[in-house]
Amino acid sequence: MALTSTSTVADALAQYNNNLNWEADATTAQNALEAVRFLLANRPAALASGLGQNINYTQLEKIHEQLAARTAGLGQASQRSFTQGRPLTW
What we know:
By secondary structure, the chain is mainly alpha-helical. The chain has one domain (about 10-75). It is about 45% helix and about 0% strand. It contains three helices and no strands. The termini are far apart. The mean pLDDT is about 80.
């Protein structure tokens, strides 16, 4: 799911919760990173929920660092060029 400017905090939390196993897969790591970035960028001054839910932004920033490190090399494999080429001889 791609979060946009019309997405809500609930959308970002749902995306994060759907990708909690981000250590196992690059795609889930990217989705979780997007959700964490959304939550950090759109954090309110205070967050209260009738369900007793809280968001710990200090912990979220640490998770962001881990996710950014995990996804740092993604997409670069397709940009590699050949370093040596040899013509085929028959």
